[in-house]
Write a structure and sequence with these properties.
By secondary structure, the chain is α/β, with parallel strands linked by helices. The chain contains 9 helices and 11 strands. The radius of gyration is 18 Å and the shape is globular.
Length: about 290
């Protein structure tokens, strides 16, 4: 992934360390990767911050409150999406389940839930929130390797990764594992930021969805199609996440100006979505991929 490349932009870690990182373009896959790539054993320090909201249920700041409101709305839409697919067993694997909100609502809709979450604090919140029976707590795993080790060849009709793929360390190996865990004709649902959106172009190095170095990879529509096509998974549908442009713009304003400029962030979010009606390059995109039968 990191061979044909050139530096596109440099960004700062605004969440934990203030360290700077380069974003480098792989032209063949039309994707960016973060450089230098931290050692895998050092990654945890970049997540160890109260500002990393996906590992908490914080409502302290205005941005926190907006995040929680939008999160509740988008979770309802995500569950509506998975309910639209036929699944005899109704068992779903959510990778990077965070504090468990999506799995909680999925369970209330009749789904058997399995979660993967590497952050112990977030995982403990998820276990309590989903309110599984004692015998079911083992349905939560720290990483994908633990699931494979303990469940062997178990496969799922639906696997979801909501803003998670950009965090995985060894991308090609991880996609291979996803392919193994997916049933024939099973669906993999992935949501990731889109660096080709208008808000990314506008905010440049301050664009919050670069989120270096937690985000190791930065995808385009071409890169998703090509990466998963190599692993026997075909892109069947792409959906916009329109609310992401507003939340990301709000954070980006804070990074760029040092203050929460709600009005400007709202305007940039609106304009980004308006532009995307023609370009289809929304701030974040949901990709629905289907495993092909050999």
């Amino acid at each position: 992934m990191e061979n044909k490349s050139k530096i596109i932009i440099s960004c700062k870690d605004y969440t934990a360390t203030n360290e700077s990182f380069d974003l480098i373009l792989n032209e063949e896959f039309e994707m960016l990767f973060t450089s230098p790539k931290p050692k895998e054993e050092d990654l945890s320090k970049y997540y160890d911050s109260d500002a990393y909201i996906s590992h908490t249920d914080s409502t302290k700041s205005l941005i926190d409150k907006i995040y929680q409101i939008v999160k509740n709305y988008t979770i309802a839409k995500k569950v509506e999406l998975i309910n639209s697919f036929q699944s005899e067993e109704k068992e779903i694997l959510d990778i990077g389940c965070g504090t468990g909100d999506f799995l909680e609502v999925s369970k209330s809709n009749g789904w058997k839930v399995v979660g993967i979450e590497p952050n112990d604090k977030a995982k403990n919140v998820a276990v309590k929130k989903v309110n599984l029976a004692k015998a079911e707590v083992s349905r939560f795993y720290k990483n994908i390797e633990d699931l494979i080790d303990k469940k062997g060849n178990q496969q799922f009709d639906i696997i979801t990764m909501w803003h998670v793929l950009e965090h995985v360390y060894d991308l090609e190996d991880y996609i291979s594992k996803l392919e193994k865990l997916l049933k024939p004709n099973g669906r993999l649902i992935i949501a990731v930021p889109n660096y080709k959106s208008y808000d990314a172009t506008y905010y440049r190095e301050f664009w919050a969805a670069y989120d270096v170095p937690r985000h190791l990879w930065h995808f385009s529509q071409k890169s998703i199609t090509k990466l998963f096509g190599m692993k026997n998974m075909k892109l069947v549908k792409t959906l916009p996440m329109k609310f992401d442009s507003y939340y990301v713009s709000l954070l980006s304003e804070k990074y760029k100006t040092g203050s929460t400029n709600l009005l400007r962030a709202l305007l940039i979010g609106i304009w980004s979505n308006q532009k995307a009606k023609a370009t289809k390059e929304y701030s974040s995109l949901i990709y629905i991929l289907k495993k092909q039968i050999n």
